[in-house]
Amino acid sequence: MLQELPKKEKNYATPTQGQLFWRVQGECWRRAVTPFLMYLFMSMIALTMQAISGDKLLWLRMLLGIVCILCGAAYNAHLCFQYGKKHYDVFATGEIHRRNAAFGIESGGDYRAHQEYRPWKGFLIGFFTGVPAVLFGLISAFTGALDFVYLLLAGWAYLPLSWARSIKVQRLGEGATINGAWSIFMVLLPVLVSGAFYILGAKKRKAEKDAASARAAEVERLRQEAKKNQEERRIQTEEQRKKTAQSKKKKK
Fold first, then answer.
1. Is residue 54 helix, strand or coil?
2. CB burial readout 208-228, b (16+ within 10 A) else e
3. What digits encode the pLDDT tens for the residues 56-92?
4. Whole-angstrom Cα distance, residue 186 to residue 36?
């Protein structure tokens, strides 16, 4: 029987430039899924709040909708903060791999270069989170179609546009409208939140690692100091013993 050829393992530690590019895209898309779902979930809640009828209660619908959107942004911030910490850990591991490689030492482990921390990755994750808002915002701007789908999938971006239209109608009367392209600017919400908290998460992890290194260095210093003191006491004790022995010989 023919022997099966061993499966070729993917090289995650030292990928080619092309492999690294596509793997980074995949990693950022993967990290964008959960924030998108949270924005989607909170948008659904905000959408139910819009069932409150009455033009005079527009402010209440807006307030409740904004609270829901901010809750989605808060969870987005929490997730990207954790992503930043995780990716910084991978970056620290990558530094060790590169340092070992410079001396010709091959490192093991499950290090994956595409998961290393880079400051721009948080902003890219945020942009991928807001891709539906960009896509449907462009469709709304040029065709005026699919607004209902836009509202369902990216209500956090569509609702501010809806509120602005309602305010304009109240002031100018029926027929007043606002171009859907303005809603695209709402993509700045996940972009800025994701980017800022991704960087903060990485800085937090760096501070923790620096503090741990400082504590380890201090413990080592104290250990060396205690060892030195113990050696000095041993030498003093030995000298004292010799002096005592010499004194006894003189008395004899």
1. coil
2. eeeeeeeeeeeeeeeeeeeee
3. 788 899 999 999 999 999 999 999 999 999 999 999 9
4. 14
Measure the CA–CA gap between 155 and 163, rounded to whole angstroms.
12
Task: Report which residue type is found at 14.
Answer: T
The type of residue at 4 is E
In the chain, the amino acid numbered 28 is C
For residues 187 and 196, what is the distance between their CA atoms, to the nearest angstrom? 14
Contact call for residues 87 and 116 (beta carbons, < 8 A)? yes
Token match 């701007």: residue?
141
- The helices-and-strands tally (H runs, E runs) of the chain is 7, 0
Contact 154, 38 (CB under 8 A): no
Give the span between the Cα atoms of 79 and 96, in whole angstroms. 26
127 contacts 191 by C-beta, under 8 angstroms: yes
How distant is the alpha carbon of residue 221 from its chain centre? 35
Distance CA 85, CA 198 (A): 8
Joined tokens for residue 31: 């990290």
pTM confidence score: 0.84
Q: Map 177-226 to HEC letters.
A: CCCHHHHHHHHHHHHHHHHHHHHHHHHHHHHHHHHHHHHHHHHHHHHHHH
